[in-house]
């Protein structure tokens, strides 16, 4: 550890919290530059976390400073979100298959636009399942599921990163994971594999996400997994369009009866019809428009809505998940 202090100051370190500054000693040169070697371990209750107290004694007086240091033995990754940034150490040695699986998604475009799609207060936040682009949520394209690597020694405690699974199948983990916001040791019975730990004050960011109000977007996006989505503000309630609309399977043509497409719609407007989201590509008249995609089924004389999707800025989005420090050989 290198730094600058008062010229010729004596520095002493307390690295084990016993109040004794006897774990490392050094003397700064005439320019105040010093170098200290402090022995650290990755063992113990704090799993590599160390709070170092450094005391500098010079002619002008005595000064103390506290420094957080983490001694990592696994891969370090940084989660950059719209709610803040936090770092995690992955447990390469204890869960090599799970870590490799996570890093394969992280290194690919698969996690681009990833969102926190589930948040349960004082329980978990969950990601890895859905991406967001232009107000549209898409399910992840996943790789084959991996083998479960649960270890009883790595319990689902607050701050741990664990694999999500299909209920009843311990070997179903793929792209989804969650962060434990509380000590959820009961999840150990289900063998949810812990493969990482949030570092330092990173849980303050996770807590901030977990404290956001969640909204049920299952019907909006026709997906049963989106019932507890954290948003920074309430989604719009939607505006029902005048008249009724009809669609033919395999056709992009939207027909209306008693509708006012020219005044109520615009090119690019998203509309909700029978639990499906469509986008307007062009408008021919008050009763005819063309959609950007074809209808998957026949729709007859149905109601429709606009202004119902949350803005992209309202979601918690991972702008990137970066590998900071790979596992050393």
List key phrases describing it:
single chain; 329 residues; Elongation Factor Tu (Ef-tu), domain 3; 3 domains; eight-stranded antiparallel beta sheet; 4 helices; 8% helix
Give a written overview of the molecule.
The chain has 329 residues and is mainly beta. It folds into three domains: 2-70, no CATH class; 76-232 and 315-325, Cyclophilin (Beta Barrel); 239-308, Elongation Factor Tu (Ef-tu), domain 3. Helices cover 8% and strands 38% of the residues. The chain is built from four helices and 26 strands. The protein has an eight-stranded antiparallel β-sheet with strand order 9-10-14-13-15-8-7-26, covered by helices on one side. The chain has an eight-stranded antiparallel β-sheet with strand order 18-25-21-22-23-20-19-24, with no helix packed on it. The protein starts with a strand and ends with a strand.
In short:
The protein has helices at 96-106, 203-210, 218-221, 261-264, and strands spanning 2-4, 10-14, 24-27, 33-35, 49-58, 61-70, 76-81, 84-90, 118-120, 124-127, 130-133, 136-139, 160-163, 177-180, 194-198, 214-215, 229-230, 239-240, 244-247, 253-257, 270-273, 276-285, 288-291, 299-302, 304-306, 318-325.
């Amino acid at each position: 550890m290198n730094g600058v202090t008062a010229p010729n100051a004596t520095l002493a370190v307390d690295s084990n919290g016993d109040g004794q500054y006897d774990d490392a000693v050094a003397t700064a040169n005439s320019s105040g530059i010093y170098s200290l070697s402090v022995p650290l371990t990755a063992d113990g209750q704090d799993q590599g976390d160390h709070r170092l107290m450094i005391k500098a004694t010079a002619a002008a007086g005595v000064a103390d400073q506290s420094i957080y240091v983490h001694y990592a033995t696994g891969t370090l990754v940084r989660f950059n979100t719209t709610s803040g940034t936090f770092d995690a150490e992955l447990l390469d040695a204890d869960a090599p298959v799970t870590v490799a699986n996570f890093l394969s998604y992280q290194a690919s475009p698969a996690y681009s636009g990833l969102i926190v799609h589930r948040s349960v207060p004082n329980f978990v936040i969950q990601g890895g399942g859905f991406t967001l682009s232009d107000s549209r949520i898409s399910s992840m394209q996943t790789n084959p599921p991996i083998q479960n690597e649960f270890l009883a020694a790595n319990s689902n405690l607050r701050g741990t990163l664990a694999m999500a699974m299909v209920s009843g199948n311990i070997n179903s983990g793929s792209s989804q994971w969650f962060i434990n916001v509380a000590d959820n040791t009961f999840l150990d019975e289900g063998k949810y594999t812990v493969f990482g730990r949030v570092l330092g004050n990173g849980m303050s960011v996770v807590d901030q996400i977990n404290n956001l109000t969640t909204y049920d977007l299952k019907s909006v996006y026709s997906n049963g997994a989106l019932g507890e989505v954290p948003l920074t503000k309430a989604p719009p309630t939607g505006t029902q369009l005048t008249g009724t609309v009809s669609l033919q399977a395999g056709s992009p043509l939207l027909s209306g009866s008693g509708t006012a497409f020219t005044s109520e719609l615009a090119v690019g407007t998203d509309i909700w019809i029978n639990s499906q989201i469509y986008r307007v590509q062009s408008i021919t008249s008050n009763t005819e428009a063309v959609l950007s995609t074809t209808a998957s089924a026949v729709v007859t004389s149905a109601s429709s809505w606009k202004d119902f999707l949350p803005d992209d800025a309202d979601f918690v989005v991972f702008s990137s998940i970066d590998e900071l420090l790979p596992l050393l050989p």
